[in-house]
From TrEMBL:
Coiled coil: none annotated. Residues 12-66 form the HTH cro/C1-type domain. It comes from Fuscovulum ytuae. Belongs to the short-chain fatty acyl-CoA assimilation regulator (ScfR) family. InterPro entries: Cro/C1-type_HTH, HTH_RamB, IrrE_HExxH, Lambda_DNA-bd_dom_sf, ScfR_C, TransReg_Diox_bact_type. This is Short-chain fatty acyl-CoA regulator family protein. SUPFAM superfamilies: lambda repressor-like DNA-binding domains.
């Protein structure tokens, strides 16, 4: 696959503004001419290797910030939005989308907001939603979608909260007994902890200062819920300040995000950044070993691996996803070039869907996306028993993966032929360009179709090359 040129004009402008430098001063420090810098900032020229090196040496920039980030996510999200049939006659080429994401990210986000509003309006009309008759039925993202996008565009890494959690769990760099640290923090505030046979996973009564956890849940879940309550009670000022900066549109979105940030603190305290990253490297990212070392679940470990994006100390760029039995994505994050569909399910050719067929086993897959990028994908089912007879059991499948160039650092790559066959997978049928896929549900938006009533192959139509 040819090397892709690096266009990062918006990021260069952002760095210069952050440093309060004029274009001339910035150009001097980078060792380039003023016209050359101007062309790079406007994406008329790619960022050269010499400039990347100067950014790292002169300003201590983590150069990975220039490659994977908001631009890739915006391109993926715009392609999915443009797969809507309403754009069938006006679909811009991929190169134009990349230019828009790089040169005008604010405009790209405004387009996505507009499409989301259109989609919601269309769905309400289709279902005769009673909201059409309400005065407050404004066309805005749901609180859940707004919070999802907040974490999505933050790389699922919140630096201040992550560092606070690490300081709590590993003061001075030494890992503490996390359960003892949490109970001590609660005791200092006069809060008592009890375990009962309740069906609720966690319940806190502010009046009596009593926290009860269900003894029906697994130990990692109990530890996580204990730390979540610690976050709500001891990190409130930090969480509220983070919410102020996010500027959510509704109180409901802010409330959901507050729980999300408390969850983030809990996961980061259970698996503190530097200690967890060191253990991940030592075990070659063995999820079961890491779960044992940190008293966590396999899902918690997999999710945490995808958040190791601290500037200057980034881990392997992973994607992480969780799907339910209907194939709907319930959690998603990607620090890789692979971005997931915002609506609906994932590609049916992906091994995460087969995990339900082999409970308790890890499935490995070497996969290639239509853009030619190759990945090592890992999938496993996750069951969460209710803790009692006839109690509902939650069943999910999780997927974790990275680009194949990092595969040697994963124990799961052992025994695989990394130069052999890679299975073709996609993102969403409407934006997948593969002409012959036996699992295709709808035609690709950007291709012409040929329908021959006298022939039937894999599909009832042919896709023009």
């Amino acid at each position: 696959m040819p090397t892709q040129k690096l266009y990062a004009g918006a990021k260069l402008r952002e760095i210069r503004a952050r440093l309060s430098l004029t274009q001339k001063s910035f150009a001097d420090k980078l060792g380039v001419s003023l016209p050359y810098l101007n062309q790079m900032e406007n994406n008329h020229r790619p960022v050269s290797a010499a400039v990347v090196l100067a950014l790292a040496q002169e300003f201590g920039l983590d150069v990975t910030e220039l490659t994977v980030g908001e631009s890739e996510r915006l391109v993926s999200d715009m392609r999915e939005a443009l797969a809507d049939p309403v754009f069938a006659q006006t679909t811009p080429p991929l190169a134009d989308l990349r230019l828009a994401a790089s040169n005008a990210p604010a405009l790209a986000r405004a387009f996505l907001d507009l499409h989301r509003a259109y989609r919601q309006s269309h769905e309400r009309l289709a279902s005769l939603d009673e909201a059409l008759g309400r005065e407050d039925a404004s066309l805005r993202p749901s609180p859940w979608e707004e919070v999802r996008d907040f974490f999505h565009y933050c790389d699922n890494y919140i630096d201040a909260v992550d560092r606070a959690a690490e300081h709590f769990a590993a003061p001075g760099g030494l890992r503490a007994d996390i359960t003892r640290a949490a109970t001590t923090a609660l005791e200092k505030r006069g809060i008592t902890l009890a375990f009962t046979d309740q069906t609720e996973t966690r319940r806190y009564d502010p009046a009596t200062k009593r926290l009860t956890l269900s003894n029906r849940t697994a130990a990692p879940t109990q530890r996580f819920q204990l730390l979540l309550q610690v976050a709500l009670l001891t990190q409130n000022d930090l969480i509220e300040a983070t919410l102020d900066l996010a500027r959510f549109a509704t109180p409901e979105a802010r409330d959901i995000a507050k729980i999300g940030l408390a969850n983030y603190f809990a996961g980061a305290a259970l698996l503190p950044y530097r200690a967890f990253q060191a253990a991940a490297l030592e075990t070659r990212h063995d999820l079961e070993r890491l779960a044992d070392l940190f008293g966590a679940s396999i899902e918690q470990v997999a999710h945490r691996l995808s958040t190791l994006q601290r500037p200057g100390a980034k881990g392997i760029p992973f994607f992480f996803v969780r799907v339910d039995q209907a194939g709907t994505i319930t959690k998603r994050h990607s620090a890789t070039r692979l971005q997931f569909a915002r609506f609906g399910g994932a590609c049916p050719l992906w091994n995460v869907h087969r995990a339900f067929e082999t409970p308790g086993q890890f499935l490995r897959q070497l996969a290639e996306t239509p853009d030619g990028v190759r990945y090592l994908c890992l999938a496993r089912d996750v069951s969460k028993p209710g803790g009692a007879f006839l109690a509902p059991v939650k069943r999910y499948a999780i997927g974790l993966g990275c680009e194949v160039q990092h595969a040697a650092q994963l124990v799961y790559a052992d025994g695989l032929d990394l130069k052999g066959h890679f299975e073709p997978i996609g993102i969403s049928c409407r934006i997948c360009e593969r002409p012959a896929c036996h699992q295709r549900s709808v035609p690709p938006l950007e291709r012409r179709l040929k329908v021959d009533p006298d022939r039937r192959g894999l599909l009832p139509y042919e896709i023009a090359e």
